[in-house]
């Protein structure tokens, strides 16, 4: 009997190879976008295929090659293969179509890097303008936070499963939150809770200016009553609004925390570990070799 | 005695429809391009007429063709009445097959068909459908980059659909350089002619403006013979951009103020487009602004007064159709 890989072993094995994607892309100096797309293709491929059917090495290269094309960073197959050891053009081109098929022909991938940049801009708008909200936070602080959050994404989001479980903006916020909880939380509070008194006033004024649009202007007689009613309605409305705002904020923070937890669960895979699995995988991919080996051994025993 | 066995029919697991290959028939070859062959056929289960774009694989040195990949990538994301529908994708051993809705006619055919008369209502209707389609692309951050009458297809019910996403790309990463060698020459915006590496949806809006003009004139508006001539033709018609009307234009890579033509006067444009109302001219001017940052976007275009003044846009089903061609009598005779 061939001993097949357990799902855990397969996962460990794939984690090891996911890291190689990043190395490969860095080697070719490919943009982040390509790196992330390649990693996403690779993960999606093995949602429907097994390492025991397709060995990850060439699938990995194929994903990188296809992602580069899909992200407009074309590299010819010759120069691609020349740089890789032990891989021929045909290996990759034969697999390209199979990979595309496994992806169900879906090539567009949304990554957290773009929303991260968006948050970087909005952090500046919310925390620095018109005047700084936190005495120790400047453009430089935020720029630094942004850079470290990018590193966080590279380290935790590319290889973990979070991209299957959270939206790109949620992952981006998780990166910000885990990098600097104090600043990110302040941003979220300002965004969702309108924490400052000044801001509260703004809301109130805004509410009064546009009275509840649902209350249709009734006939003139009831208009006077309407005004009184409207005022109290605006008040309770306001409370409800504050309440839902708080709920939104809390839900979001809970989501972000969950995202951080999952992103950090990935254990680094050691080379030894994956070598061990690689051996097992070899026979699963080439059952005939195992049979031959057994026959040989049997033949020897008979002698 | 056999005991009656009540055999419960096996509950099918989520029914796996057979390979998609069997679901479509390829019946007639209708066209062949560099990377694809187009067939007409039917969806077997529904009898729906469809077109199959069979993309050749294995003939290119570098694997799957980029345009094919782009087309699949973006059409998968877009669903809109005015964008061609990608019904399905399936693979046969050597080919990638895109199943597209069947769109038998295109705007170029109609423009060239001199027996068909366009009313302002017809033009308005086509413009509206084009703008709605492109609005959908742009709000999903997708640039089409090859709008021309030939790529605006017409469905049997008269709906216009934007097709051919082989040059499309996603917009929104300011760090990336874009290629300025896009869009068929006659419909290419001035910033592209000047070799801009960063541009926006405004390039598609320019193409739509030129198509608008072509719908009224019934001949191509700016038919440049080559890339250099295109600059000349464009500026002869719309004026040469200067720093005043287009700040920083001179910093574009291929900028040169060849011959300086004056901006056309309103009266000049009125003469050029004799059928156009003042509102129609307004929209045209907004769409063909030389400075891309002043050109109007799809939202502003859709809200333009031109679309709310009379005549109303023609209902798609009442729009002009291809006139019966001279070859057709043959076909008719055969039927008799």
From TrEMBL, chain A:
One of its GO terms (cellular component) is transcription factor TFIIK complex. Pfam families: Cyclin_C_2, Cyclin_N. GO terms for molecular function: cyclin-dependent protein serine/threonine kinase regulator activity. Keywords: Cyclin. Residues 221-236 have a biased composition (Basic and acidic residues). It comes from the Eukaryota. The keyword Ribonucleoprotein does not apply. Residues 19-101 form the Cyclin-like domain. Residues 202-245 are annotated as: Disordered. InterPro entries: Cyclin-like_dom (IPR013763), Cyclin-like_sf (IPR036915), Cyclin/Ssn8 (IPR043198), Cyclin_C_2 (IPR031658), Cyclin_N (IPR006671). GO terms for biological process: cellular response to nitrogen starvation; nucleotide-excision repair; positive regulation of Atg1/ULK1 kinase complex assembly; positive regulation of autophagy; regulation of transcription by RNA polymerase II; transcription initiation at RNA polymerase II promoter. Belongs to the cyclin family. This is Cyclin-like domain-containing protein.
TrEMBL record, chain B:
It comes from Spathaspora passalidarum (strain NRRL Y-27907 / 11-Y1). CDD domains: STKc_CDK7. Residues 24-307 form the Protein kinase domain. This is [RNA-polymerase]-subunit kinase. Belongs to the protein kinase superfamily. CMGC Ser/Thr protein kinase family. CDC2/CDKX subfamily. Its EC number is 2.7.11.23. GO terms for cellular component: chromatin; cytosol; transcription factor TFIIK complex. SMART domains: S_TKc. GO terms for biological process: 7-methylguanosine mRNA capping; cellular response to nitrogen starvation; filamentous growth; nucleotide-excision repair; positive regulation of Atg1/ULK1 kinase complex assembly; positive regulation of autophagy; positive regulation of transcription elongation by RNA polymerase II; positive regulation of transcription initiation by RNA polymerase II. Coiled coil: none annotated. ATP binds at residues 30-38, 53. Keywords: ATP-binding, Kinase, Nucleotide-binding, Phosphoprotein, Serine/threonine-protein kinase, Transferase. The keyword Repeat does not apply. The keyword Kinase applies. Residues 1-25, 311-336 are annotated as: Disordered. PANTHER family: CELL DIVISION PROTEIN KINASE, CYCLIN-DEPENDENT KINASE 7. It holds the Pfam family Pkinase. GO terms for molecular function: ATP binding; cyclin-dependent protein serine/threonine kinase activity; RNA polymerase II CTD heptapeptide repeat S5 kinase activity; RNA polymerase II general transcription initiation factor activity. The active site is at residue 146.
């Amino acid at each position: 009997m061939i001993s097949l890989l357990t799902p855990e072993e397969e996962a460990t094995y794939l984690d090891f190879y996911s890291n190689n994607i990043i190395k490969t892309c860095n080697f070719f100096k490919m943009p982040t976008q390509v790196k992330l797309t390649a990693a996403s293709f690779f993960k999606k491929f093995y949602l429907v295929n097994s390492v025991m059917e397709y060995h990850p090495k060439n699938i990995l290269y194929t994903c990188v090659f296809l992602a580069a094309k899909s992200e407009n960073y074309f590299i010819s197959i010759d120069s691609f293969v020349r740089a890789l050891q032990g891989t021929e053009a045909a290996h990759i081109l034969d697999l390209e179509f199979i990979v595309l098929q496994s992806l169900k022909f879906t090539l567009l991938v949304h990554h957290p890097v773009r929303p991260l940049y968006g948050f970087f801009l909005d952090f500046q708008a919310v925390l620095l303008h018109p005047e700084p909200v936190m005495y120790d936070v400047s453009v430089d602080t935020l720029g630094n936070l942004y850079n470290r959050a990018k590193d966080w994404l590279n380290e935790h989001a590319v290889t973990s499963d979070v991209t299957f479980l959270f939206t790109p903006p949620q992952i981006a916020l998780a990166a910000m939150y885990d990098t600097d909880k104090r600043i990110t939380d302040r941003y979220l509070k300002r965004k969702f809770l309108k924490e400052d008194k000044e801001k509260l006033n703004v809301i109130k004024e805004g509410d009064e200016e546009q009275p509840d649009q649902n209350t249709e202007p009734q006939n003139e007689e009831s208009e006077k009553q309407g005004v009184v009613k409207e005022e109290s309605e605006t008040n309770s409305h306001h409370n409800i609004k504050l309440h839902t705002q708080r709920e939104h904020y809390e839900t979001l923070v809970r989501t972000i925390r969950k995202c951080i937890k999952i992103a950090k669960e990935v254990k680094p895979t050691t080379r030894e570990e994956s070598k061990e699995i690689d051996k097992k995988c070899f026979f699963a991919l080439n059952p005939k070799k195992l049979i031959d080996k057994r026959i040989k051994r049997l033949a020897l025993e008979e002698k | 005695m056999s005991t009656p066995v009540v055999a419960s029919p096996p509950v099918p697991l989520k029914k796996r429809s057979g390979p998609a290959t069997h679901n479509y028939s390829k019946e007639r070859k209708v066209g062949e391009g560099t990377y694809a062959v187009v067939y007409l056929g039917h969806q077997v289960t529904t009898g729906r007429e469809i077109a199959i774009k069979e993309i050749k694989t294995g003939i290119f040195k570098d694997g799957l063709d980029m345009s094919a990949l782009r087309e699949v990538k973006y059409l998968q994301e877009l669903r809109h009445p005015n964008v061609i529908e990608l019904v399905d994708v399936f693979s046969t051993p050597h080919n990638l097959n895109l199943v597209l809705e069947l769109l038998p006619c295109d705007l170029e055919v109609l423009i060239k068909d001199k027996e068909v008369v366009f009313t302002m209502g017809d033009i308005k209707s086509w413009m509206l459908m084009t703008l709605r389609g492109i609005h959908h692309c742009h709000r999903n951050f997708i640039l089409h980059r090859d709008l021309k009458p030939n790529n605006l297809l017409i469905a049997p019910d008269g709906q216009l659909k934007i097709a051919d996403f082989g040059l499309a790309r996603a917009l929104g990463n300011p760090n990336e350089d874009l290629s300025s060698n896009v869009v068929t020459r006659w419909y290419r915006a001035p910033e592209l002619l000047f070799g801009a590496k960063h541009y926006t949806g405004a390039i598609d809006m320019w193409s739509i403006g030129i198509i608008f003009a072509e719908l009224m004139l019934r001949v191509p508006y700016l038919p440049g013979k080559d890339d250099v001539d295109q600059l000349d033709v464009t500026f002869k018609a719309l004026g040469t951009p200067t720093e005043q009307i287009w700040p920083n234009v001179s910093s574009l890579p291929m900028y040169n103020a060849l011959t300086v033509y004056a901006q056309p006067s309103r009266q000049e444009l009125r003469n050029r487009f004799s059928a156009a109302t003042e509102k129609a001219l307004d929209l045209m001017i907004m769409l063909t602004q030389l400075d891309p940052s002043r050109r109007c976007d799809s939202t502003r275009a859709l809200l333009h007064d031109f679309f709310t003044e009379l005549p109303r846009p023609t209902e798609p089903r009442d729009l002009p159709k291809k006139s019966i061609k001279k070859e057709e009598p043959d076909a008719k005779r055969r039927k008799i």
